[in-house]
Amino acid sequence: MRAARLTATGSPRDVVEVVDVDDPRPGPGEVLVRVGATGVCATELHFLDGLLPAPRFPVTLGHEVAGTVEAVGEGVAGSARPWAVGDRVAVHYLHSCGDCRPCRAGRENLCAAPRGMLAFASDGGFAELLVVPARSLARVPDGLALVDAAPVTCSVTTALHAAAVADVRAEQVVVVHGTGGVGLALVQVLRRRGARVVAVARSAARREAALGLGAEWAVDPAAGDVGEQVQRLTGGADLVVELVGTQSTGEQSLRALAPGGAVLYVGYSAESLTVSPLALVVGEHRVLTAVSCTMAELELGLDLVARGEVRVLVDRTVPLEELPDVLDALAAGEVVGRAVVVP
Ligand SMILES: [Zn+2]
Ligand SMILES: [Zn+2]
Questions:
Q1: Range of 252's domain?
Q2: Which helix (H) or strand (E) holds 139?
Q3: C-alpha torsion angle, residues 105, 109, 113, 116 (rounded to 10)
Q4: Distance, CA 235 to ligand 1 centroid (Å)?
Q5: Sign of the CA dihedral running 251, 256, 262, 265
Q6: I need a labelling partner for 14 at 20 to 30 A (CA). Which of 4, 35, 210, 251 fits?
Q7: 209 CA to middle of ligand 2, Å?
Q8: What is the CATH number of the domain that holds 329?
Q9: 158 C-alpha vs ligand 2 centroid, how far in Å?
Q10: What is the pTM of this model?
Q11: Tens of pLDDT along 283-340?
């Protein structure tokens, strides 16, 4: 099969190559998926720049995968998830064990002993075929195209999990600080909860997209301190979701808060956040974090998109060979929503 392999850290055209590799084969409890679509996430850029360590070189990136069951391994037919050839599936990129304490508590996103993790620990989905545990698959509802299902597995699901962690309520003012694929999904998830949303984006196209998806305000960070702009527009935010994660955006997010407000970290960068405990204590401000999603949130995300309640913006679809160009476009902020590879 063909796969787009990352050979080192560096710029996309130098370190991503499409090559022939052996077809993977499903072992016991595993499913062979013919990849129909794989979303290109900002996370890929962190493997290229080395902020996230690749598990090895070469490795196949791509963790937002939807496809069709091509074959099943021993024991799958009689299991709790008896997938059959031809089933349309989306992959939970973190292959939770199902056995550890977080898994038993329904918090598979915090699994202590994952069996694999696309791109982070095992080969991902920028390839024609992929082997994954049967328990890490969710059904793609009828009528939902695989190209739309793939980005759900990381963008909509991350947004659903973040909103759940922060327990967002109606009428709360929530800032989405960074409006990529996750941010645009988050705008919609927050609106569904009745929140009043401020979207922050450098690109006019992304601000426009956020307003179209239900944001009440759109803020351009180039027009001044985001914290001051949010204070002026709303009187202060109950929650700022940080999808950028630099020192500067973190400081501006904290300045945007109303008394009792919280900053929720989902995004990160190579930078740290330094903050005085006093500055947090005075306003009783909190710092929260959210990572990945549960299996239930993946199933919910697919259902919401299939029913048209949340929209996935697919910016473009490209073959494997064009992955380096798309990564460049993503780094330049030229992608609105998700680019999707169709191998
Ligand atoms: Zn992702
Ligand atoms: Zn586990």
A1: 167-289
A2: strand 137-139
A3: 140
A4: 33
A5: negative
A6: 35
A7: 37
A8: 3.90.180.10
A9: 19
A10: 0.95
A11: 999 999 999 999 999 999 999 999 999 999 999 999 999 999 999 999 998 998 899 9
